[in-house]
Amino acid sequence: MPNSSIEPPEFDATRARQYLDPESKEALFQQVRRFLEQSLLEGRFRANRPLPSSRHLAGVLGVSRNTVNAAYQELVALGLVESRPRSGLYPIAQPALEPRAIRGLQPTPRTAPVTTVPTRQVDWAAKLPTPRDADLPHAAAHADWTRYPFPFLPGQPELRTFPARGWLRALNTALAGPHLAASVRDAVDDDDELLVDAIRREILPPRGISVGSEEIIVTSGAQQALTLLAELLVQEGTAVAVENPGYVDAWHIFRRAGAELIPRTVDAQGARRDEDGSPTPSLVYVTPSHQHPTNVTLSYPRRAALLREAQLHDQLVIEDDYDSEVRFKGRPTPSLKSLDRTGRVVYVGTFSKFVAPGIRLGFVVADAALIAALRERRRYATKHPPGHLQRALGLFIESGEYHRSLRQHRRHLARKWEVLTASLEEHLPFPLDPPAAGGLSVWVGGPPEFDGTRVTELARERGVLVDAGERFYLADPERRHVRIGFNSIALEAIPRGIEILGGAIRDQLAE
């Protein structure tokens, strides 16, 4: 005989069990709680009678008494049910609501009048703003790149060459002894002093940069660095010069901050100042060491001209030095920051291209006043990057493991570059322009009838991942380029992968 506190026939096993889904990811006691909550709101329990016992309800629902008790405890915590000593659990009077339909069940209408509340779903399209950058292209995302036998990608690591032992040792040390406090503390807006000192003493001098710790801030990768800079330096309508082709993610970051993007054409000497009547920018964004994506190096005359122009027009220059350490021939060119004497160059560095993109650590070097403003901005966004990762990276650099691994990685990349360029010369059906001896990719251009976008589709079908050059253009997009990375692919897989890519190119040209 059913409990007298429940109004039959609404409360029956068939109806109750329809609320429970054993395949659901939601915990069973939460499903029971949701069923009871709905029944309370529909008025199926009398206010002056106790709720059914856990034994009885467990039998009706076919669940354990512990499951029912857990659901009852949540209802008490939500204020829908109260416990009366030596009497049981009783419903607490709630504002009358229109009965809700859950999982396809239509509640039985109540005879007492109720105040109806609209039950329409949220119109998120109306509530969410339209992004300012909705018209910009997106960089290719290859989340499933490990499934492909020939991933010619620059932005993903070759997993077997990652210095796992050294990095694991640094992570463990960072949680021991005097390092534990730095790893687990709430640093508010401070950075790990060991990492900042390692950047100042070990990372920046080879780039010709000498600064104090107050001129460095650690960020969650280069993207957070660019986002913080855009929030501070870009207002609605601010003209920002960017390279074309260039770094797509930077375009999105600046546009979202309200920038008007001014494309600057890239040729064999890097970005040039186009005399096309476009507005004089307030901010210039460049990747001078290895231009993204063409890999060319900004020539010294253009570097000097860029700095003169910045001084003349009171401009700021953001130098994104994302892979300056990856050079295979000759001496590295000096950074723009090392040539700057007026504090106009803001230097952005990252550890993503060598250590690993998943670690998400980078840094900004700039005048102390700008760093202080970035620090305050970061505090109310993310406070600081994870202390454990910061301390581990500082230890990784201080121990010498960073530079040892970097030298090995550079030699390995140089060998990959040699094999890749030789394979391209063998299998491309058109001449290969001399590629830059550095970076993590080769920018390949073909004849007018070459369609790089179509080639990427054909290549993907055959297990080869490359990036279509068309994606990297802000203005006047060209389809006759592909970017072939070699960071993620194994050395021994390169010749066969390029042979397959060459076949896809020939098939496209035949089309």
UniProtKB/TrEMBL annotation:
This is Aminotransferase class I/II-fold pyridoxal phosphate-dependent enzyme. Residues 26-94 form the HTH gntR-type domain. Keywords: Aminotransferase, DNA-binding, Pyridoxal phosphate, Transcription, Transcription regulation, Transferase. GO terms for molecular function: DNA binding; DNA-binding transcription factor activity; pyridoxal phosphate binding; transaminase activity. In the C-terminal section; belongs to the class-I pyridoxal-phosphate-dependent aminotransferase family. PANTHER family: HTH-TYPE TRANSCRIPTIONAL REGULATORY PROTEIN GABR. It comes from the Bacteria. It comes from Agromyces seonyuensis. The lineage of its organism: Bacteria, Bacillati, Actinomycetota, Actinomycetes, Micrococcales. CDD domains: AAT_like, WHTH_GntR.
